Amino acid sequence: MNKAISLRYFLTFLFVISFVFNGFGQAEKAETEIRQIMKQLEVVGVSVAVVKKGEIIYTHSFGLKNIEQNTPLQDKDIFRIASISKSFSATSIMQLIEAGKLSLDDDMSKLVGFKIRNPKFPETVITLKMAMSHRSSLNDSEGYLNLDAINPDKNPNWAKCYSDYEPGTGYKYCNLNYNLIGTIIEKQSGERFDNYVKHHILKPLNLNAGYCVDSLDNNLFTTLYEYDGKTKQFTAAPTAYAPRREEIKNYVMGYSTPIFSPTGGMKISATDLAKYMTMHMYYGNYKGKKIISKKNSKIMQTKLSDEEGYGLAIRTIDDLIPGIVMKGHTGSAYGLYSAMFFQPEDKFGFVVITNGCNPTYTNGMNNVLKQTIAVLYNNFIK
């Protein structure tokens, strides 16, 4: 071997060693900073994942999966991720649109099977797009855990489910919108909601996730903890993973759908959520698997107004990382806080999920999520 080739191999070796050690240094620094955040904000546990150029370049889990058993949190552990779940429902709708079964301009009344009209604006059609973008004028004042709340034949106070503005002219975040959307998925696909998502999104992406508790290994469920500000104590949320077996026995397709909570019931690990996020980052494709078209993926990510930045279950924000526009969603329920945000042009993104913390906020964002994402960006992307 001549000297030139030997020198080239030696320089390559030095580059690889330098890259590896720098990577370890970045991870060590990030982990030290995240532990400081956890101590400051009284975090029970947190799982994170970083994606760059289509690859998961870092995952780690900190703290406890279960306080009472002193069980450490691991990357494979599953969380009920709350409202990030809405994007799975919206993605399913986009698939059905591509199959020619739906249009974003369809009348919700015709799709659901009973009247969905704001009584203050009875001539204004409430469309599927309005519901998916929270511009339907619906609200959650009568509840959203079953469709009886808005069904005129079931609830004498159904009219209270509608706000005072004309559908399509204002924004109000509403969980009921997405439980109705889950119903539409069942009616148009012929599959139970949880099975549709499993067969058309989760299995193609090879994700260990789901809406039905009994379809998953409950040993992987991360206990969620609600924080009491007065006592400064954490209490396990007993119903976060309720199996709802009796309700499922009496299931009515196209009506019982809220049992699975299309609006917030997805259970998934941070690592697998990062793979799903990468699919949206690449406009509907993940490692050769096409989930939705590029056109419809971009529609999901397009904000309908600057004020709220909401598209179709994907929000646009510009204050998470200074000077960078990000796309994604957050979730909060039972003491859990979750975030999934990505940059589709520069191809990087973050997933952060905590199972309990002392919740404080900056500009409407939970500080555990916001500060942890800043640490991940500064150490792995910037």
TrEMBL record:
Query: Could you tell me which InterPro entries the record lists for this protein?
Result: AmpC-like, Beta-lactam-related, Beta-lactam/transpept-like
KW Ribosomal protein (keyword) present:
no
The cross-references to Gene3D superfamilies, in alphabetical order and at most eight, read: DD-peptidase/beta-lactamase superfamily
Q: Which intervals hold domain Beta-lactamase-related? A: 33-359
Give the GO molecular function terms. Answer: hydrolase activity
Entry keywords, A to Z: Hydrolase
Q: What is this protein called?
A: Serine hydrolase
Q: To which species is this protein native?
A: Pedobacter planticolens
